[in-house]
Design brief:
It catalyses: Hydrolyzes free adenine bases from 7,8-dihydro-8-oxoguanine:adenine mismatched double-stranded DNA, leaving an apurinic site. GO terms for molecular function: 4 iron, 4 sulfur cluster binding; 8-oxo-7,8-dihydroguanine DNA N-glycosylase activity; adenine/guanine mispair binding; metal ion binding; oxidized purine DNA binding; purine-specific mismatch base pair DNA N-glycosylase activity. Belongs to the Nth/MutY family. This is Adenine DNA glycosylase. This protein has 19 helices and nine strands. The chain has helices spanning 9-26, 38-48, 53-66, 70-75, 78-85, 92-108, 116-120, 127-138, 147-156, 166-179, 185-198, 217-220, 280-287, 331-334, 338-354, 361-378, 415-421, 436-455, 485-494, and strands at residues 237-247, 256-260, 271-272, 275-277, 298-300, 313-319, 380-394, 398-412, 470-473. By secondary structure, the protein is α+β, with helices and mostly antiparallel strands. The structure holds iron/sulfur cluster.
Length: 500
């Protein structure tokens, strides 16, 4: 790490003095700055990770109304916490925050301790949050170094070390610690963050109005725009996912089928549309041009959605010209009641497929894949109708392209039916199987007609049991269930007429 003029004693004290004075005169009035309650500061710092201030404010205020104390957060059901966080992204932040609050209840009697080590040991609190909470709430001289702060200090001291490397962060933390003026750690750390957010911005630093411009080595060297040095992160891995927007009929008309994710892993515990990952082989086929459904058919509908400064962003693309595939009529229109009507529905479906209404082989393959995968993974037999939209979602390590297919609900396969519905040979190519759904449906319908005579429950009726974790919802249920951003956007598009 090279230190030039700014690195002298005079240059350092100049930086700290001017920054502090500027912050105290110019600081923004933000809701979390009106309190030194460590709980409130903790919540705000977690929300602000990867997310812009303007986006955070309404979430913070709503969260504080719902969970005004650490105890209220600790005792709340996790589903409520996730619901309150819905739309902010990075949902593990919410889960960890609540886990940390529960640790404070258990270990520290409900009070965030004035103890650097103890705070650093709480779930979800890393070096940055620890420094922010300790300095702002307790005025402890702890550095709080995030990307903004690394950028400002790299420029002021003209540092050429790669800020993507952990050892550079450690070095900058040591430097920041030395700069903290006595008795003003909270304001100094917030001043650094504020300078990075408002003036020393990534692309166009406002050097001419910067309080530390006189001794800024980066500016004096004309390198303010090329610093900091940061090697590019690995590109997120692309994944193509097919999601089924399964519409109910009869008593379930107006509802759609959703499922809850497992308690652990990515987006744990959140709700989503049933969807399947398209194997690499399929993606490769599509890339080779044999599966023509692609970007050319979609139109970008908006800018990157918040949160989106760094890691996560979301873009939803609406299909401009929806290609009608397998236009065989709504389930409700054909299979109204009873087994005979249901059988008629299956027959009509097969005739329509064999009549060649599915024009695009790529779409047919995808729909068959969707039907097959959902049947295998979730025991639901559904019938795809048309593509509804394409949505993209960026995680830090993954990029999902979610193709949403409007489908009708067939029924829940029973174990013996799955065996019957399985393809004769795994070697068979999907395109040669006709429609998996139709084959499966016909086989199953025959067995079902006998079953229904004894049980009185016809396939697809409202009281047919669903697999665990699945439920039918209407727009009103969206108030209660937490969905990841990508599915939230899809459902808002689907239920356009409702305030979700
Ligand atoms: S003078 Fe320019 S480059 Fe230096 S800290 Fe200020 S805004 Fe950043």
């Amino acid at each position: 790490m090279t230190e030039k003029v700014a690195g002298t004693e005079e240059g350092r004290s100049y930086f700290s003095r001017e920054l502090l004075e500027w912050y105290r005169a110019q600081r923004r009035d933000l809701p979390w700055r009106r309190s030194r309650d460590p709980y409130r500061i903790w919540v705000s710092e977690i929300m602000l990770q990867q997310t812009r201030v303007d986006t955070v404010i309404p979430y913070y205020e709503r969260f504080m109304t719902r969970f005004p104390t650490l105890q209220a957060l600790a005792e709340a059901p996790e589903a409520e916490v996730l619901k309150c966080w819905e739309g902010l992204g990075y949902y593990s932040r919410a889960r960890n925050l609540q886990a940390g609050a529960r640790q404070v209840m258990e270990r520290h009697g409900g009070q965030v301790p004035d103890d650097v080590e103890a705070v650093g040991a709480l779930k979800g609190i890393g070096p940055y949050t620890k420094g922010a909470v300790m300095s702002i709430a307790f005025d402890r001289p702890e550095p709080a170094v995030d990307g903004n702060v690394m950028r400002v200090l790299s420029r002021y001291f003209c540092l050429e070390a790669d800020i993507a490397k952990p050892r550079t962060r450690v070095g900058i933390e040591q430097l920041a610690r030395q700069l903290i003026p006595e008795g003003a750690a909270g304001d100094f750390n917030q001043g650094l963050m504020e300078l990075g957010a408002l003036i020393c911005t990534p692309k166009s630093p406002g050097c001419l109005i910067c309080p530390v411009m006189a001794h800024c080595e980066g500016r004096l060297a004309g390198r303010e725009r090329e610093l900091p040095i940061k090697t590019k992160a690995k590109k997120p891995r692309p994944e193509l996912r097919l999601a089924a927007l399964i519409e109910g009929r009869d008593a379930l008309a107006g509802k759609i089928l959703v499922r809850q994710r497992p308690d652990t892993g990515l987006l744990a515990g959140m709700w989503e549309l049933p969807h399947v990952l398209v194997p690499d082989g399929y993606a490769a086929v599509e890339a080779s041009g044999k599966m023509p459904l692609g970007k050319a058919q979609v139109k970008q509908a908006g800018q990157m959605e918040q949160p989106g400064q760094a890691g996560e962003a979301e873009r939803v693309e609406r299909v401009e010209q929806v290609e009608q595939v397998g236009r065989v009529g709504r389930v409700g229109q054909v299979g109204q009641v009873g087994q005979s009507a249901q059988a008629g529905y299956f027959e009509q479906a097969q005739q329509t497929v064999s009549a060649g209404h599915m024009k695009q082989a790529g779409q047919l393959e995808q729909m068959e894949l969707l039907v097959r995968s959902i049947a295998e993974e979730t025991h639901l037999l559904v019938r795809p109708r048309e593509q509804f939209m394409v949505a993209e979602h960026l995680f830090s390590h993954l990029k999902w392209e979610v193709r949403v297919i409007l489908t009708d609900f067939g029924f829940v396969l029973r174990p013996h039916e799955e065996a019957q519905a399985a393809p004769a040979s795994n070697e068979r190519k999907v395109a040669e199987t006709s429609a998996f759904y139709e084959l499966s449906a016909q086989t199953t319908a025959r067995a079902r007609s006998t079953d229904a005579a004894t049980t009185g429950v016809a396939a697809g009726e409202a009281d047919e049991p669903l697999p665990p974790g699945y439920r039918w919802i209407g727009p009103e249920d969206m108030r209660e269930l937490a969905f990841p951003n990508v599915f939230l956007r899809i459902l808002r598009d689907y239920w356009m007429d409702y305030e979700l």
